[in-house]
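Troubleshooting: if your tokenizer reports a length mismatch, compare your output against this known-good record of 102 residues.
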Amino acid sequence: MHNRADQFGKNLLRDALSAAAAPETEVEVVAATQRIDVYAVPDPNRAAERPKMGLIGELSREPALFEPFRNTPSLARVRRCLSKQLAWHHELNHRAEISINS
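Known-good structure output:
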């Protein structure tokens, strides 16, 4: 727990929710291994090519994840992709912190 206010808020929520639920605190989240279909980091030396590529060129102006689907994905599949994107963002931040502290 980061500070006393966080602990207070967590305890308050736990106690309030206990009237209608079985709340737990400090629940560990174990992330399963996930794989990104395509991850693209733009190359500044090839910036002139992006306008020729239409929408995909526009989408690749910044680092981007791509998850192509043959059919419209279900809500569960969309949520898995969002989870993967958030996990990757966390991993990139973690790597950046390590390189700064090295």
